[in-house]
Amino acid sequence: MPDLSSRAVGVQAQRTSVDSRLGSGAHSLMQQNFGNIGNAQFQHVAAREVAAPNPPKVVEVAPRTFMIQPGMANVALFETDDGLLMVDSGCAGDGPALLHAVRQLSAQPLHTVVFTHGHVDHAFGLWAFLEAGERPRVVAHENLLDHFARYAKTAGLNAAINGQRPGANGRSWPSAPEDFVVPDVTFRDALELRIGGERFVVRHAKGETDDAAWVWAPQRRVIAAGDLVVGYLPNAGNPRKVQRYAEEWADAAEEMAALDADYVITGHGDCVEGAEAIRDELLTMVEYLRYIVRHALDGLNAGMRPDDIVESLVIPTRLAAHPRLQPRYDRPEFICRNVIRRYGGWWDGNPANLLPAPTALRAGEIARLAGGVDVLVARANELADSDLRLACHLAEWAFLADPRSSAVQDCYVAVFDRRRDGEQSLMGKLAFSEPSQRVNAQRAEEDR
């Protein structure tokens, strides 16, 4: 194996700990989920000048077949006699390190690049190869063009919900034409590539996105799955992102399981080796996702309100206990809500919430009836030891009713920090860190 000890090219921004925002252990959780990611790149995923903290990890999974982890996402590399097939290209800041790693592995030209989807951590590092003079054919599903267009339309939204900061070009999220590599070839259902006399099959799937693709190398018995396989519960519910597709995700996993592959190069984290382990993970994922979908649809068809559908969801132990399907990023409840959103719209079924009174007015009236925000604060603090979910509602009502009260601010932060610290999923931790940020913003405004 070539020497891969040289450090990634890039500049680490001033350290702002993920743990300080999301609670103790959050950075460790991110590394467990994503691998090679540091505090700086976590806040600058679109910046070309901010690299991952460590050199790329490289594993030869089969002859002339490599998994490269230049940053938070994995890249697959297939060497053939006619050139290299690369699947994904990492974050923008991963480009130089990925180029260095690839060129230490092979002198073959970069023949073809397949994007498994258009997310910021998978399709934005190719610029380094292009600037170095490489001219690969770029392949992606036809929906990737709409994905890129949506990124450009919602750059401010994505920067805000992902906690991103501007890079050297002043942008916090891809939005300018030069930020995107437009594919040369798009496909709808499947595309067969012939490179070096070898067959590679690119298949479309819906999963985390509607432009997802995966690559099957039958002669090598290797699947490059992108984010369709990640080693934890699929991100099929993300509360602040566009629609996810749990049903089609299960279909894709079932199709992969039938191939009897020897190795799956995952989109993040550790890969899967061995036909038995691959089938176990994929078929358990199929059953897990379909169980949630069936529960959500049964509830909708029975006329249940969304909250009641989610509250009644209980995942069977044989599924919940699978070590590679733990809710470290997403949660079953979030996936259930995404299925409900897909088929049942956005209304929660409570008539008062169809055209509600302003949130602050509702919270103010609750506080008045309770006897003031101090009563809500006292009860929230009392409940925090026995019913933290209910305590969060009271603390939030108090803050919405009187955001300038220091006692209310302290309660709001303390109660949700406890909720955040006990939360297993990264999505949950991000949401439960919001009160601290809101209070900091409120106090900064008061100090001006």
From TrEMBL:
InterPro entries for this protein: Alkyl/aryl-sulf_dimr_sf, Alkyl_sulf_dimr, Bact_Alkyl/Aryl-Sulfatase, Metallo-B-lactamas, RibonucZ/Hydroxyglut_hydro
Residue ranges occupied by any Metallo-beta-lactamase domain in the UniProt entry: 72-268
Superkingdom of origin: Bacteria
Pfam family, any one: Alkyl_sulf_dimr
Molecular function terms, GO-annotated: protein dimerization activity
PANTHER family for the chain: ALKYL/ARYL-SULFATASE, METALLO-BETA-LACTAMASE DOMAIN-CONTAINING PROTEIN
Protein name as annotated: Metallo-beta-lactamase superfamily protein
Organism classification: Bacteria, Bacillati, Actinomycetota, Actinomycetes, Pseudonocardiales
